[in-house]
């Protein structure tokens, strides 16, 4: 007798998202994996968002309207707590799943039940649904061709010291694993997904599906753009919070193993210099001094004579935060100059020169 496919909970937090919510829900209900429940969790929308959701007459869909506006993390945690399936996806109101998205990730879990969560590649689209080809490397992993299971320590260190490789709606979590690490941080206003993936990676192996399983929409109304000028601060806060809340898990790793893993990651950068690929372990300001021939010596210098893994991680985080702050300060000075009267006057004076050059070159 064939066993029933496992149920997957798809939680869709939303608020004033009438433009895209219908397309988003439709892409979930049209999955080839049919055993799903869809929880639409509306944040007191003032437009037609909740009415559009209620117009889908599908027994698998439930629309919940929050009596008060919750924090992002509190709303996301509703999907973990109210869901009945062993697997959970936090899907965005403006994103679109490919038809086999859920099926591919369920298959990975069946082959690798030890994984805490599975993520995939995504395609980035604009507000009109057109693909942005220059963004296709976002949230991808070029170190491996094909699906892969990452061990906990190397993936944790790569995610800690580098960029957030993981696009939230491209993730399927094991519900018991997500609740086991405490769920999403309800106090964080931004980058709470990064913080969650770090805590889960500290506890479990991580799965990667080498396929585009969703389309991540970038448009002017998206919430994340409201925080873009504070990325460095929020990313540091997410990493520091994850380390602080994962103390017991980090302590199970030997200091020598942590140090060896960091050096291994640096060597991967060196092999890909001057254009690091794959996990892109360190942010650009770090990869310049570290990705040189003496990378191993440089990273050991940054680590120093530190007592245990938590201290090593904290020291590296401080270095990354310092470099991120330097980069943000430079961006601020450039922006301030570009908005100055002298810069605008310079552009005005140069405009005729540019026009003459273009005319001459034709």
Features:
362 residues, alpha/beta, Spore Coat Polysaccharide Biosynthesis Protein SpsA, Chain A, 2 domains, nine-stranded mixed β-sheet, 14 helices, 9 strands, globular
Structure description:
This protein is of the alpha/beta class and 362 residues long. It has two domains: 8-247, Spore Coat Polysaccharide Biosynthesis Protein SpsA, Chain A; 253-331, no CATH class. It is 47% helix and 14% strand. The chain contains 14 helices and nine strands. The protein has helices at 21-29, 49-54, 72-82, 101-111, 152-161, 175-180, 192-203, 231-245, 247-251, 255-272, 284-290, 295-303, 309-338, 341-361; strands at 8-14, 36-42, 61-65, 87-90, 96-97, 117-125, 148-150, 172-174, 206-217. Strands 1, 2, 3, 4, 5, 6, 7, 8 and 9 form a nine-stranded mixed beta sheet that branches. Strand 1, helix 1 (21-29) and strand 2 form a beta-alpha-beta unit. The longest helix is centred in the C-terminal third of the chain and has 30 residues, at 309-338. It is globular and about 55 Å long.
Beta-strand residue fraction: 5-15%
How much is the average pLDDT?
A: 78
The fourth-level CATH homologous superfamily of the largest domain is Spore Coat Polysaccharide Biosynthesis Protein SpsA, Chain A
Largest sheet: 9 strands, mixed
Could you say what the CATH topology of the largest domain is called?
Spore Coat Polysaccharide Biosynthesis Protein SpsA, Chain A
Weakly predicted, low-confidence segments: 272-295, 302-307
Instruction: Please tell me the CATH architecture of the largest domain by its name.
Output: Alpha-Beta Complex
- Tell me the Rg in angstroms: 22 Å
Provide the succession of SSEs.
EHEHEHEEHEEHEHHEHHHHHHH
Number of individual domains = 2
The helix fraction, in percent, is 40-55%
The total count of strands amounts to 9
In CATH, what is the class of the largest domain? Alpha Beta
The CA-CA distance between the termini, in Å, is 73 Å
């Amino acid at each position: 007798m064939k066993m029933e496919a496992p149920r997957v909970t798809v939680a869709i937090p939303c608020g004033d998202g009438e433009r895209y919510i219908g397309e988003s829900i439709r892409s979930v209900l049209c999955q080839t994996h049919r055993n799903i429940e869809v929880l639409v969790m509306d944040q007191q929308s003032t437009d037609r968002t909740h009415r559009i959701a209620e117009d889908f007459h599908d027994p698998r869909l439930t629309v919940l309207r929050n009596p008060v506006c919750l924090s992002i993390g509190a709303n996301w945690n509703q999907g973990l707590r109210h869901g009945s399936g062993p697997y959970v996806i936090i899907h965005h109101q403006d994103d679109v799943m490919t038809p086999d998205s859920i099926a591919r990730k369920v298959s990975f879990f069946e082959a690798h039940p030890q994984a805490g969560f599975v993520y995939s590649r995504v395609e980035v689209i604009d507000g009109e649904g057109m693909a942005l080809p220059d963004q296709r490397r976002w949230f991808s992993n070029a170190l491996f061709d094909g699906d892969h299971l990452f061990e906990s320590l190397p993936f944790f260190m790569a995610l800690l010291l580098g960029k957030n490789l993981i696009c939230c709606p491209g993730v399927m979590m094991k519900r018991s694993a997500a609740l086991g690490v405490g769920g999403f941080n309800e106090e964080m206003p931004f980058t709470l997904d990064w913080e969650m993936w770090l805590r889960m990676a500290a506890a479990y192996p991580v799965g990667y599906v080498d396929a585009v399983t969703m389309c991540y929409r970038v448009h002017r109304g998206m919430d994340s753009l409201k925080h873009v000028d504070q990325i460095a601060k929020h990313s540091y806060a997410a990493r520091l919070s994850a380390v602080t809340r994962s103390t017991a898990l980090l302590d199970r790793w030997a200091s020598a193993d942590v140090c060896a893993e960091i050096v291994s990651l640096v060597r991967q950068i060196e092999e890909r210099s001057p254009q690091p690929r794959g996990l892109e372990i360190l942010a650009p300001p770090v990869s310049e001094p570290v990705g040189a021939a003496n990378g191993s010596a440089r990273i050991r210098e940054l680590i120093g004579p530190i007592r245990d893994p938590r201290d090593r991680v904290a020291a590296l985080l401080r270095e990354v935060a310092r470099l991120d702050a330097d980069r943000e300060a430079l961006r601020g000075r450039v922006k301030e100059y570009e908005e100055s009267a002298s810069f605008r006057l310079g552009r005005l004076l140069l405009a005729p020169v540019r026009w003459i050059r273009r005319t001459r070159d034709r």
